[in-house]
Amino acid sequence: MSALKIGDRALDFNLPATDGKHYSLESFKDKKSLAVVFSCVHCPYVKAWEDRLIALQKEYADKGVAFVLICANDAVKYPQDSFSSMKKQARDKNYPFPYLHDESQEVAKAYGAQRTPEIFLFGQGRKLAYHGAVDDNYEDPGRVRQAYFRDAVQSVLEGKPAPKPETAPAGCTIKWK
Amino acid sequence: MMIEFLYFADCSSHEEGLARLRKVCAEESVSSSVKVIEVRSDQEAEKLNFIGSPTILINGRDIDPAGLEGQRPALTCRIYRHPDGRFSPLPAEGTIRKALRAGKSNCERGL
User: Fold this and answer.
1) Is the complex ipTM higher than 0.85?
2) Considering only alpha carbons, which residue of chain A is nearest residue B85?
3) Whole domain around residue B76: which residue ranges?
4) What is the DSSP string of A46-97?
5) Cis upstream peptide for B54 (omega within 30°)
6) Which chain B residues touch A139 with a CB distance below 8 Å?
7) Per-residue pLDDT tens over the stretch A14-44
8) CA A43 to CA A24: how far, in whole Å?
């Protein structure tokens, strides 16, 4: 499981994004909640859940919830996860969230992320409220029984603990150098 | 008929993929056993032309040949595109069924 435990504070980062800017925790200081999502380009689980993440961000953007995606995969071994491929992915899918490149992999290691996609949702005081998967069905959005992430976001906004604060992130392993 | 199931252990869906393959085999009354092969290294991936986990071969033919285009051997999870356009780490049951039926037909015709 993650290096961060439920209730731990978010760890800072300062990373370049596909939009040409740099982002840190400070960039999201006006948001009630921040989801740090470790992601990548090549992984089928990311592709399977991608539209659901985009829809969720759009749904909750006006409620003060921000997502930030971070790709930390070794692009030498997995060229599909290069910064230029990330830019194309963000452009093609019209990402409504910043997409950051953790080339040194230090942020992913600090968070204890293992897979893509893997969500760390921070609520009040930037404390970890939820860690894990998007939901319980990567293959078919119509057959989701437990919308872990959505339920956690809603709970955070209502000032309540997430119904299921930790789930096992299903996905590709982060490709370490 | 020869059925091979190649997987990379880091891809968490391989057990579900194997169960799906066995389910469709049973539904299609295919009695051939499934040879399960774990791909453990980049060298093995190169040797087997393994582009991602899971990969299913029927009589040596990939069940989703379109998915091979532009891919190179790698220890990674494989992307399947379902008929309705959705992406998945697993082949659709229909894709497996179609390949099994083609394999059966080829065997019966001695191909």
Assistant:
1) yes
2) A48
3) 3-108
4) HHHHHHHHHHHHHHHGGGTEEEEEEE---TTT-GGGSHHHHHHHHHHTT-SS
5) yes
6) 86, 88-90
7) 999 999 999 999 999 999 999 999 999 999 9
8) 25
Contact B8, B75 (CB under 8 A): yes
Candidate from B76, B80, B90 with C-beta closest to A42: B76
Say yes or no for a CB contact (<8 Å) between B76 and A78.
yes
Q: How many domains does chain B have?
A: 1
pLDDT digit string (tens) for B34-50?
999 999 999 999 999 99
Prediction pTM value: 0.93
State both tokens at A42. 């090549």
B18 in Cβ contact with B36 (< 8 Å): yes
Token pair recorded at residue A167: 């789930």
Supply φ then ψ for residue A109, to 5 degrees.
-65, -40
Q: The domain spanning residue B15 has which CATH number?
A: 3.40.30
Domain annotation for chain A: domains and CATH numbers: 30-173 (3.40.30.10)
Q: For chain A, state the CA radius of gyration.
A: 15
